[in-house]
Structure formats: C-alpha cells, structure tokens
Target: LysM domain-containing GPI-anchored protein 1
Amino acid sequence: MREIVLLLLASSLLLTSTTAKSTIEPCSSNDTCNSLLGYTLYTDLKVSEVASLFQTDPISILLANAIDISYPDVDNHILPSNLFLKIPLTCSCLDGIRKSLSTRYKTRPSDTLASIAGSVYGGLVSAEQIQEANSVADPSLLDVGTSLVVPLPCACFNGSDDSLPAVYLSYVVRGVDTLAGIARRYETTVSDLMNVNAMGAPDVSSGDILAVPLSACASNFPKYASDFGLIVPNGSYALAAGHCVQCSCALGSRSLYCEPASLAVSCSSMQCRNSNLMLGNITVQQSSAGCNVTTCDYNGFANGTILTMLSNSLQPRCPGPQRFAPLLAPPDTVPKDLMYAPAPSPDFDGPGSIAASPGSSVIPPGGGPLPGNFANGPAGSISTATFSSLSYFFIMFLISVSSFSFVFSS
Ligand SMILES: *[C@@H]1O[C@H](CO)[C@@H](O)[C@H](O)[C@H]1NC(C)=O
Ligand SMILES: *[C@@H]1O[C@H](CO)[C@@H](O)[C@H](O)[C@H]1NC(C)=O
Ligand SMILES: *[C@@H]1O[C@H](CO)[C@@H](O)[C@H](O)[C@H]1NC(C)=O
Ligand SMILES: *[C@@H]1O[C@H](CO)[C@@H](O)[C@H](O)[C@H]1NC(C)=O
Ligand SMILES: *[C@@H]1O[C@H](CO)[C@@H](O)[C@H](O)[C@H]1NC(C)=O
Ligand SMILES: *[C@@H]1O[C@H](CO)[C@@H](O)[C@H](O)[C@H]1NC(C)=O
Model:
C-alpha cells in the first residue's frame, strides 16, 4: 500500500518536469558493453567530423554501417545531411544507470544548449542533461570554446534479447515513426520493443529514445582478452585487436567470423600455432566419416597479441562459402531505399526535421514510468522521461522502488 502511494507521488512529480520518454537501464556492476547510437546528420559532414563529434574513430563508424573503408581518402568523404548512421559507443554503468559520458563537445559561436542537443546531437541528449552534466548555471552565458560533456544514452541488457545475443541501438523517434515501423525496420516485433522499453502501450512520440535490440553474433573470448564480450550486430562489421582484425556475422548464421582487417598494418602474427593457416582461413576435407572442417579463429586480443585458436570439427556436410553483409560505397546521397532510413517513411524530411522539438511529448498517464511494466523488461528496464536535475532524483527513487516491488511480486 505504501509503495503505491510513493509511486504515484513520484510519477506525478515526473509529469510536471519532463519531456520525451527515454529508456533507462539500471545497472550495478561497472562492466561495459558495446552499443550503438542511431544518429541522423544535421548537416553535411565529413566522416572524420562525425567521428570527432562522438570521439570515436572514422573507420569504426564506417564499418558499423558496412561502408567500404578501402575507398581513397575515405575519412574526408562528405556524408550528406539527414543520412542515418549507427555510431558505435562503449556503454558504461555510471551512478547506477547505463550511459556514456565519454563524449565532449567544444562550443562554437551561436551554439545554444538546445541547438547542441537537438541539432548537433540529433536529440540523443536534451539541453537539460547537458546543463546538468556540466553544472552550467546560466545556459544563456555559454562561452565559445567551452568543452562540454555530452551524456549519451545506451543500453546493454546483458548483451541479449530473448536469450539470443543482441546489441542495443539508442534510437530517437521521429514524427513519421510508428512502433510497428521501427520493429519491421530492425527485424524485431512490437511486443519485444514494448518489453525491452517497458512500455504500457505501443505508442511513441517524436523525440522519445528507444532501446532497439539488434540481433547479433557473440564472441567467446577468454576473460583476460581486452575485447572480452565482443558482440557484433548482424549487418555490421567491428574492428578488433587495434584495427588489425575485423569481425562480422556470417549471413544466415549466428556465428562470429573474424579475419585480418583490410587496413591491417603492423599487426602481431595472425597465424595459428602448429598450422600454416592464417586467421580467418577455413579448410574443408571430405572424408568417409564426413567433412573435416578446420578453422583458424580469432580468440581475442591480450597484451598486444592477437590470440588465435585452431579448431577442428567433423560435420555431416561440407559448408558452402561463407557470405557476409555486402560492403557499400561511401554514400553521397541519402538512399531512397531503406538502407539508412530509420523506419519506413514516406520521404525524407527537409534539413532540421530531426531537431523538431525533442520534448514535445509528455508521459501518458498510465504509461511510461508507472509500475506494472517493470517485470516485463529484461533486467528491469524503466521507461521514463528524459531527466532534468529535478526528475533525476525521482528516477533513482523509482529504480529503488521498482527493485523493491519486483522482489515482492516475484
Ligand atoms: C569497478 O572498477 C574498479 C576499478 O576500476 C574495480 O576495482 C572494482 O572491483 C569494480 N567493481 C565492480 C563491482 O566490478
Ligand atoms: C546474461 O547472458 C548470459 C549469456 O549471454 C547468460 O548466461 C546469463 O544468464 C545472463 N544473465 C542474466 C542476468 O540474464
Ligand atoms: C541478418 O541480416 C540479413 C540481411 O539483412 C538477414 O537476411 C538475416 O536473416 C539476418 N540474420 C539474423 C540472424 O538476424
Ligand atoms: C588464408 O588467409 C589469408 C589472409 O586472409 C589469405 O591471403 C589466404 O589466401 C588464405 N588461405 C587459405 C588457404 O584460405
Ligand atoms: C582433419 O584435418 C586435420 C588437418 O587437416 C587433421 O589433423 C585431422 O586429423 C583431421 N581429422 C579427422 C577426424 O579426419
Ligand atoms: C599479460 O601481461 C601480464 C603482465 O605482463 C601478465 O601477468 C599476464 O599473464 C599476461 N596475459 C596474457 C594472456 O599473456
């Protein structure tokens, strides 16, 4: 009884201070995972400029989007405004929730917190969140050249969805989106999205941030490898071992396949011990007993050394050649097909559409952070409002109450 009163109080206070909904994953250990941001370019930007906005490297961004990195001078390739990209990001556990604080932005003339949040970072962050993360007293007095921490959303959910490997994409809902459209686009279901995001109803509003599970292939590297737990979404490539190795899912399978990266330079040996096979090599040998398949697999990166593992298996039939997501040319235009479009939409809106008031929606009464949804989400996700300094306290409060009520209801 007391619980219910407390929750209603907390939710009604949230209602007064909130804007768009955002999924927040509570966490307790300080482990990290790899995650993705769904980012729509607010203007034409070079690949290297997108990379510096997120303090990541251009090659990782290109490979995450299956863009061919062997094009000459690809770092300086200009990507078109409104292009949708997946940005790889390391997701941490800070103050009990999943987020990333590793991105910094240096302010330029005419920047405001609202333009940085809504336009430059495409609504992945709110002005209030930047203000709070940097203890900005007066947002109207923003000195040019100030280095601001940009807190970005992310989720790990144990690297799985329905017990299958998954990488989570933080996706900013646009006006044209429906939950069904987003589910179709990312090959998941409305009910899965509702579970992951602890939604009471299949409704989304422009500016909401959803955690979208992307089916993925998981590695099985030893714990001491620096890339332990590497998990790569279907259709993406990931770099490992200091840019020496690239990994992706083989089409039609859940197995991770790694090979020398196309730009590999000064790398440690990639030969499997006691064998003449190189990392990524697969040999097949038909015998009366079946097909003898020998592979030289990547087994993680430790102490600057590429670990390899020779494995042998007898299979009933010899496997055909492995196929991977095709690498695409660096785009010059926003494709009309759905390759980069976030969800089936009639057309791409004009520039600036993504900045359209993230925060025009409020938590529907009975939806969002109200109790009853908690038990559905993996590892206790909480869908709640983008938090300001005031609501932050109540979110923490809700998290503790939710674990409390979870214990009692299970
Ligand atoms: C968190 O990280 C610190 C070092 O960074 C480590 O000493 C500590 O054991 C970690 N805690 C957990 C719960 O993993
Ligand atoms: C996390 O995932 C691993 C395998 O991916 C599984 O063994 C483990 O039980 C999961 N843990 C939780 C808390 O779901
Ligand atoms: C991976 O993506 C391809 C192409 O988009 C699709 O055909 C395949 O079913 C996907 N595989 C998994 C395991 O999701
Ligand atoms: C082994 O892999 C190397 C590097 O990827 C490649 O050049 C070579 O042709 C492969 N050999 C076999 C037998 O597949
Ligand atoms: C499979 O082939 C490898 C080398 O090609 C060989 O060492 C191994 O004995 C073979 N295994 C079987 C069961 O034939
Ligand atoms: C890596 O180096 C450290 C210290 O040099 C050593 O203790 C550790 O065993 C090494 N790990 C591996 C996997 O070689």
